[in-house]
Write a structure and sequence with these properties.
By secondary structure, this protein is mostly helical. The protein has six helices and two strands. Helix 1 packs parallel to helix 2.
Length: 144
């Protein structure tokens, strides 16, 4: 990405599997974790939840089955112009603004039965944080 070339599935899958293992370790230690990444495709989110078993079978596992983790996905949703403006203000970030359109082209917004909330990027940062905190602390966002 730093070279202006979008990542493909082949680039992302080993990285997503490694992130799943980090989340698995935290879960095994009974630790809560926050992970920030662009899991743009439904398959990427399945890998974060289920690890390599999501690749081998195209069916998502349910929490409590095998290696599935209980994860709340936060979909930060906003128009490309707002995101482009924020991206332009970043200094020293690895992703050049020219790749933003490819991110939008790749995006598969979360949908049922995925465990997610959608938060508008048109809100202020404190409002965004409060909305996410509310979803987490109210427990409404997690599947039982």
């Amino acid at each position: 990405m730093a070279e202006g070339i979008p990542l493909n599935d082949e680039d992302r899958i080993p990285w997503l599997c490694a992130l799943h293992e980090i989340l698995r370790r935290e879960d095994s230690s009974r630790q809560n974790a926050i992970l920030a990444c662009s899991a743009l495709k439904k398959m990427y989110r399945r890998i974060l939840v289920s690890g390599t078993s999501a690749i081998e079978s195209n069916q998502p596992e349910q929490p409590g089955e095998n290696t599935a983790l209980k994860i709340l996905f936060v979909h930060l949703d906003g128009p490309i112009d707002i995101i482009a403006g924020r991206l332009e203000k970043r200094r020293g970030h690895f992703m050049p603004p020219e790749l933003l359109k490819s991110q939008f082209d790749t995006l598969e917004p979360p949908s049922a039965p995925e465990n997610f909330i959608t938060v508008s990027l048109e809100k202020s940062l404190p409002e965004i944080v409060l909305e996410i905190e509310h979803a987490i602390f109210q427990g409404e966002a997690f599947l039982e």
